[in-house]
Write a structure and sequence with these properties.
- The structure is a single chain.
- The strands form 3 sheets. Strands 5-6-1-7-8 form a 5-stranded mixed β-sheet. Strands 9-12-10-11 form a 4-stranded antiparallel β-sheet. A 3-stranded mixed β-sheet has the order 3-2-4.
- A hairpin with a 4-residue loop joins strand 5 and strand 6.
- The two termini are about 25 Å apart.
- The longest helix is centred in the middle third of the chain and has 21 residues, at about 260-280.
- It contains 16 helices and 12 strands.
- The chain has 3 domains: about 1-95 and about 105-165, Alpha-Beta Plaits, CATH 3.30.70.270; about 175-225, Orthogonal Bundle (DNA polymerase, domain 1); about 245-405, DNA polymerase, Y-family, little finger domain (Dna Ligase, domain 1), CATH 3.30.1490.
- Helix 10 (about 210-215) crosses helix 11 (about 220-225).
- By secondary structure, the protein is of the alpha+beta class.
Amino acid sequence: MDRSILHIDMNSCYASIECLHRPEIRHLPVAVGGDVEARHGIILAKNELAKAQGVRTGETLWQARQKCPELVVVPPRYPLYLRFSRLAREIYAAYTDRIEPFGLDEVWLDVTDSGVFGDAVEIAETIRRRVKFELGITVSIGVSFNKVFAKLGSDYKKPDAVTVLDRENYRTVLWPLPVETLLYVGPATARKLRARCIRTIGDLAATDPELLHSWLGKMGYVLHAFANGNDTAPVATLGEEAVIKSVGNSTTTPRDLTCLEDVNIVFYVLAESVAARMRENGLRAKTVQISLRDSDLFSFERQCRLAVPSCLASELHDVAMELVRSNYRFQKPLRSVGLRGVELVPLEGNVQLSLFEDPLRREKRERLEDTVDNLRRRFGPGAVTRAVTMCDPSLGTLNPKDDHTIHPVGYFKPA
């Protein structure tokens, strides 16, 4: 028997919620955008009026304003969006406990065993009406027999709609769509496929999976299965959490970083955020990974394994700086940088001690950083700062830990 899967998309809920809370702008094209002064000036979400004038999520504010001069841009308010997301999930929980978030404003539901409330389409229509009436925002819902097709269904018709994709109609509805509409076919993959005359989902479904594997690696098999409706991934149970595989922060800096001294300040800020978040989750990192993006938006990553797993900001910072010195020559200034701890192990687990370091000294440093965490929790992030970050307040006062509110969720879960 086929499963009954719903995918619910809250239709650019950031913009919808802002219009709900600001009646004076409801009749205008509205977008939620980043801070131009801090160079986070991109469109995060837009309402239907802005969309009708060609405004797209992800483009810069100046590009959006060229298309729509009367565009009203408001700053994001993540705590408010999180509140609406939680309220919506309370509605979903009335019909099933198999609820799996996909980002802040999207979610999968498995209603296979929820027949007491009607069939999947009836449940979808009920949820659509309840969210609109109780929260004042619209959702689009895809109904299908797997997660990938349910997501395609929620994207197929917007806003405030329910689309059914079953085994009888998915070939006629989905296969003519552009290949990039399929989950995990990004711009680079789409270019590779189009270069080989694979332009639609149907073309992808009809291609030999071994050929796709030769072009795309293991994702070739995955995308072939997706296109043919052979996705069998389960919907997670409410409250089920995936194992944390990495902890990181990145930031687009208020100005370009032109030298090692600039990068040194930002990496101290990032390292303290990453280390504090690892300690909160009871983790250490075996490997430090950095990402660099220059002023031409060319980006790359490098990583280095630590001698001893660590959650110390100073150690994460030192390794990150060594990676920068070894791999970047500042032929172009840097626009954004990131730092990530990967290969995580439990904080209380066994650690191989080094013959060249005093374990008691390391323990004291960990206690010191714990104390700093407590002070910042009580008195704010600026209660204790490193002297080096005061050399340039525009860089040293960044607060990536508190800015890291929304955690993107991947489709694939660790085994």
